[in-house]
Amino acid sequence: MSSHTATTKLGLIGKLLLDGEMICETGLHIGAGKGSLDLGGADNPVVKDAFGRPYVPGSSLRGRIRSLLEQSNGMVSPSDLIYLSRRRGQEVRIHQSDEPGDEIGLLFGRNPGRMDRVSGDALEPASATPARLTAYDAPLDLDSITPQMRENLDDELTEVKSENAIDRITAQSNARTLERVPAGAKFRVRFVLDILCSEDRDLVAPFVQGLRLLEDDALGGGGSRGSGRVRFAGWKVTWRNKAYYVSGDAEQVLVDSAPGTAELQAALREEGFAGKLS
Questions:
Q1: What's the pLDDT score for residue 37?
Q2: What are phi and psi for residue 149, nearest 5 degrees?
Q3: What does the pLDDT read at residue 42?
Q4: How much is the pLDDT for 36?
Q5: Which residue in 242, 239, 237, 241 sits closest to 208, CA to CA?
Q6: 99 burial via Cβ count (<10 Å: 0-12, 13-18, 19+)
Q7: Under a CB-based contact definition with an 8 Å cutoff, are residues 207 and 174 in contact?
């Protein structure tokens, strides 16, 4: 739990920018939600921008990090979860509480109003909490798809993975295809943490913990079947205080080119780092 209280006053102190690259260790599938109409196309295409280039939505990154932090902190019992959607077969359950120091609520925000718990009485938070974390859509680094890779891809930028589901009674196979961004592809990621009070400095650590958890888990679909293993590299951390926006003061580069998330975590834990966020 954070040291925030119900009376903590909020006002912009500054923004912490974390820029890096996300490298696919295995094929990555972030679904577009619709099948391809092309003859021989994949049943499950990846999401693409208006130019036909795959990208990773910020919502996918943000949602996966949130889910992993909820699991890590033991916040997935029925009494800790509320329904976002109760449509049969499409239920969505997330952690939510009305505790002022709940780090999940502080990082990802929460809305007021009645919410049905999975188990127990309804939750009725009295006030909204602004989200501190912003995750931007991550564009594909086109140079990371090398000419050698392109020679072996099913499409210009993606591969198609074929899978079979086997009926346990008849042994009949049901083929399906999954479009994936290939291993070796890189995406440019940016996260921004708003520091709205001195207590918000403590939220940097759990966010980076979420990044490390993601590196040993999976992003997107098919994670239990080998897809979605990623790692982060080349981290740059920049601090822009309020004066940067008000009067054009210079930004401060706090970490320049941390080779991995473990090195990033170590740099952010150094004595005196929190004091720079002022």
A1: 40
A2: -65, -40
A3: 60
A4: 47
A5: 237
A6: middle
A7: no
